[in-house]
From TrEMBL:
The lineage of its organism: Bacteria, Bacillati, Actinomycetota, Actinomycetes, Kitasatosporales. Coiled coil: none annotated. Residues 106-224 form the Co-chaperone DjlA N-terminal domain. InterPro entries: DjlA_N, TerB-like. This is TerB family tellurite resistance protein.
């Protein structure tokens, strides 16, 4: 029986002689949010093939390796699921569009007769990134929605077309927002609704639609809408 040291030495020599090597081939590129760098970077998508090696020489194929994404800046390699995270630029655009859509929905539910509501909505939209948004622009858009037969009030608090637009704007964004971020959007919407007085039934139901699209629980929506009514 060989000594333990002898067996270990033999295993080490075999490990140096035999092994597996993965050869990577670029199959695509683009821009992504690199979790290693913490910012937007260029990437290459790599496809890998494994080969059995003897003395470092690849000989027999051993199948494929899972594709990876390689950062052009830090060289880090990550699973392709990192591409599901929006880039910083894309996230900013998604947030801007979401706040704009939410503001229009709340104004549509409550009307544009209040200058205070329009000013509150415009301020929220400008803070989200649409720096040139004005009260007049928002009022015109709400009027256009009211004239669009696919989006006029149809007896329900939030017209079907506008409810669909809310979900289209908020559903992709919600998974990338922290709970505080989702609540912030709902609170902004609540302040727009409260700018001209207490919530109307239509505004409450529109805010409930916003909360559902943001995956906020119903009891938390109720809590937040009540908190928005309390002066800070």
């Amino acid at each position: 029986m060989l000594p333990v040291r002898g067996r270990n030495g033999r295993a080490a020599r075999l490990a140096r002689m035999l092994g597996t090597r993965t050869t990577w081939t670029p199959v695509g590129d683009g821009e992504f949010f690199c979790p290693g760098c913490g910012g937007d970077r260029n990437y290459q998508r790599l496809s890998g093939r494994r080969r059995f090696t003897v003395l470092g020489v690849p000989l027999l194929p051993r199948g494929t390796a899972a594709p990876v994404v390689e950062c052009a800046a830090c060289g880090g390699r990550f699973g392709t699921d990192v591409l599901d995270h929006p880039t910083t630029a894309r996230f900013s655009a998604m947030l801007r569009d979401a706040v704009h859509t939410v503001a229009l929905a709340v104004l549509f539910a409550g009307g544009t007769g209040s200058r205070t509501a329009l000013e509150t909505a415009a301020a929220a939209v400008r803070a989200a990134g649409l720096a040139d948004c004005t009260e007049e622009q928002l009022a015109a858009l709400v009027e256009a929605l009211a004239e669009d037969t696919g989006r006029v009030r149809d007896g329900r608090p939030c017209g079907a077309g506008l409810a669909i637009e809310l979900h289209e704007a908020l559903d992709p964004l919600a998974p990338h927002l922290a709970p505080a971020g989702r609540e912030s959007i709902l609170l902004q919407a609540a302040r727009i609704a409260l700018a001209d007085g207490p919530y109307t039934p239509a505004e409450r139901d529109t805010l409930a639609t916003v909360g559902a699209a943001l995956t906020i629980r119903t009891d938390d929506v109720t809590r937040l809408l009540a908190a928005a009514r309390t002066p800070s």
